[in-house]
Write a structure and sequence with these properties.
- The complex is a heterodimer of chains A (453) and B (268).
- Chain A has 453 residues and is an alpha+beta fold.
- Chain A has 2 domains: 294 residues, FAD/NAD(P)-binding domain (3-Layer(bba) Sandwich); 135 residues, Flavocytochrome C3, Chain A, domain 1.
- Chain A has 11 helices and 16 strands.
- Chain A has a 5-stranded antiparallel beta sheet with strand order 6-10-9-7-8.
- In chain A, helix 8 runs parallel beside helix 10.
- Chain A starts with a strand and ends in a 14-residue tail after the last strand.
- Chain B is of the alpha+beta class.
- In chain B, strand 3 and strand 4 form a beta hairpin.
- Chain B starts with a strand and ends in a 22-residue tail after the last helix.
- Classes of the chains: A alpha+beta (453), B alpha+beta (268).
- Chains A and B meet through helix 5 and helix 6 of A and helix 1 and helix 2 of B.
């Protein structure tokens, strides 16, 4: 095991992935590891938004470094904003917490009918409440899919009917379920979640409805892989959330776990063996040019971050980037907003390299330095997310473009022009990435418009 | 509210370390304890100082990364709560709060509030796993597990490996952690093939890592953020004893290799 070790580059020799370069987080030592093949199971990039339900350490660096070495990045704009998270309570907020989706089995989602209604929830009579998911999607009701539920919550709050501090929240109410089943049944089903909610908010969800709001939770986009989980770089395999493969534009509940198991237990044990059996790999040495160059690149980057000695903290930059992405490349997107975001991200990225302040040294445990390297990668990825969202002139799954909606405000796909995966190829420093497409062909099942009415 | 934090600062393993006092203003009752440290760190960086190193990851109480002693109690004053889930409504304006790293011989300080818990990793590596066939899906119905057993295994599996048990124990014992890992796997059918070698190997590794012994203070259970019961320690002791009686020579850590199943007692 190599705890406290971070992958900072992929090494490609003769067109094949042959190793990685790491930095020891305790000593700063940059080191190369030669290999026959490289497997990345490094998770998604929701933390580009700064606030997400992901653990703080989750980051895009491993897959982004691999992308820069030639691995195609597919559908970066497909990011899932999960509807049932605890709302932000202040500007010090460091992360958001997911309340399991299972809660929607028994909880009813509502907001006051009247905008600006700031009364306590118990003071709002039944007739003054809008159970909007039940109203808008009578056949699915509170179990409407994630993207639909999230957008509906945003719409309610945009109309001024949100609840809680800042008006960015909706109620998830268990009163009916408790009345019907009793508190004990609810405790048995959701006791741990209720406890977690109370710990964070100080409110008792057995007595008062929970407040929830959507938050970035999962990224369907990731490195492009084939059915063998191999990326566009031979010998580089990508598993789990780090790849783009299984969830299309809109992951369904519990299927990330399914993917982790399938990729790890059922797919890679066969496909990795097949790869190794089919190629003749010469031994590589870490003194080979590709390793030396990658090590130097890692060390240079670390030095640049430490030498900037600017005025603003890494977190300040990350929060600002996150807020650009959340506003313009979040639950709902427009061409104008995305173009603006791209400009803002570029300007902020230039600023970052000039004005970031990373205290301390590169030769011992330096958490600010770790974060700085990750945020630097988020700037590049964030721009690509926006470009991908801008190019996809349709609404599809979690990607909602305001210009492309039905008269009822639902997503409108364009299967004529966009029934494909967008795969972005890194074109070199400072050059715009190149967009390739992989057509999606449906043989047995034919595409139809979703309806939850 | 305003707080006065007395935080343990130690630049590295060789540094003697000391408490440094930091007044923190504008603390909001909804903040988590770690968010207070975030805010303090932002101001330290702005002033050109080195921020306080502390570990954290999920900030939801489920990963086991965070942990610090707050006012003498591992993870702070709220029961069954990791420090990342400790919110400031449990403190009052003007409070003086003392923040230290875990203190245990087997957990040397790396920097400030960060300690080296890799001993836990090595204990898990010694036996905290099961063998599983990859490449095909097992038939779930072929290994039925009674609800009561599944619940008990789940109680043990809740251990997040934060190390609070070690930090709270006057002996610096890791028995609660090891017991939870051994019980979690030992209770389930999938964990049976390596059950006895596992108990021997994990205990041997635990002893080699310079953790103390259990003398039933039960401080561990009191601070455990997941309420792991000390009764798992009895379960571990029983498994260990049975494994050792069947195959003497425990404590070498070598018993696990090559002894899987052979000569090990079977559950009666």
């Amino acid at each position: 095991m190599h705890p406290r070790c971070e992958m900072l580059d992929l090494v490609v020799v003769d067109g094949r992935a042959r190793g990685i370069v790491t930095r020891d987080l305790l000593t700063g030592e940059v080191r190369s590891w030669p290999a026959e093949a490289v497997l990345l199971a490094t998770g998604g990039y929701s933390n580009a938004f700064f606030l997400s339900t992901n653990a703080k350490g989750c980051n895009t660096t491993a897959i982004w470094r691999a992308h820069r070495r030639g691995a195609g990045f597919a559908n970066p704009c497909y990011t899932q904003i999960h509807p049932t998270c605890i709302p932000q309570s202040g500007d010090y907020q460091s992360k958001l917490t997911l309340m399991s989706e299972s809660l929607r089995n028994d909880g009813r989602v509502w907001v006051p009918k009247q905008d600006g209604d700031s009364r306590r929830p118990e003071a709002i009579a039944e007739g003054e409440r809008d159970y909007y998911l039940e109203r808008l999607y009578p056949s699915y009701g509170n179990l409407a899919p994630r993207d639909i539920s999230s957008r509906a919550a945003k719409r309610m709050c945009d109309e001024g009917r949100g609840v809680g501090p800042g008006g960015r929240g909706v109620y998830l109410d268990f009163a009916d379920a408790i009345g019907r089943l009793g508190e004990d049944v609810i405790r048995d089903r959701y006791g741990n979640l209720f406890e977690m909610y109370e710990r964070i908010t100080g409110e008792d969800p057995y007595r008062a409805p929970m407040r929830i709001y959507p938050a970035p939770h999962y990224t369907m986009g990731g490195l492009w892989v084939d059915y063998n989980l191999q990326s566009t770089i031979p010998g580089l395999f990508v598993l789990g959330e780090a790849n783009f493969s299984d969830h299309g534009a809109n992951r369904l509940g519990a299927s990330a776990l399914m993917q982790g198991l399938a990729d790890g237990y059922f797919v890679i044990p066969y496909t990795l063996g097949e790869y190794l059996a089919a190629v003749r790999l010469d031994a590589v040495s870490t003194s080979a040019d590709a390793f030396v160059e990658a090590e130097r690149a890692v060390a240079d980057r670390t030095r640049r971050l430490l030498d900037a000695k600017g005025r603003r903290t890494v977190d300040a930059f990350h929060r600002e980037l996150g807020s650009i992405l959340w506003e313009r490349c979040g639950m709902s997107r427009t061409a104008a907003g995305l173009q603006q975001a791209i400009g803002e991200i570029r300007a902020l990225r230039d600023d970052f390299w000039q004005d970031v302040r990373v205290p301390g040294l590169g030769s011992d445990l330096n958490q600010e330095l770790e974060k700085a390297g990750r945020v630097a990668d988020y700037f590049e990825l964030g721009e690509l997310m926006c470009r991908d969202a801008l190019e996809r002139n349709e609404s599809c799954g979690a990607h909602f473009r305001e210009e492309f909606q039905t008269p009822e405000g639902e997503a409108r796909r364009d299967d004529e022009r966009f029934c494909h995966v967008a795969v972005w190829e890194h074109a070199g420093e400072g050059k715009p990435a190149v967009r390739h497409v992989e057509p999606l062909e449906f043989e047995a099942v034919h595409l139809a418009q979703r309806s939850y009415k | 509210m305003k707080l006065e934090l007395h935080v343990w600062r130690q630049s590295g393993p060789e540094d003697a370390g000391r408490f440094v006092t930091y007044p923190v203003e504008d603390v909001n009752e909804h903040m988590s304890f770690l968010e207070v440290l975030d805010v303090l760190n932002q101001s330290l960086i702005a002033r050109g100082e080195v921020p306080i190193a502390f570990e954290h990851d999920c900030r939801e109480g489920i990963c086991g990364s965070c942990g610090m002693v707050v006012d003498g109690v591992a993870h702070g004053p709220q029961k069954a709560t990791t420090v990342c889930q400790l919110h400031m409504r449990h403190f009052a304006d003007g409070d003086v709060v003392v923040v230290e790293p875990w203190r245990a011989r087997a957990f040397p300080v790396v920097k400030d509030l960060v300690v080296d818990r890799s001993a836990f990793d090595r204990i898990v590596q010694a036996g905290g796993f099961i063998s599983a066939r990859t490449g095909s899906a097992p038939e779930a119905n072929s290994a039925p597990v009674a609800k009561a057993t599944a619940d008990l295994a789940m109680d043990a599996a809740e251990c997040i490996g934060c190390g609070a048990c070690v930090a709270a124990c006057p002996n610096g014992s890791a028995m609660l952690f090891v017991a939870a890992k051994i019980s979690h796997l030992g209770l389930l059918p999938q964990g049976q093939p390596e059950r006895w070698p596992r108990a021997r190997a994990m205990v041997a590794r635990m002893e080699a890592e310079r953790f103390g012994s259990c003398s039933n203070y039960t401080e561990c259970e009191a601070v455990c953020p997941k309420r792991i019961s000390v009764s798992f320690i009895a379960r571990m002791n029983r498994d260990f004893l049975r494994a050792s009686l069947a195959e003497p020579g425990h404590g070498t850590g070598k018993a696990a290799a090559g002894s899987q199943g052979a000569g090990a007692p079977h559950e009666t």
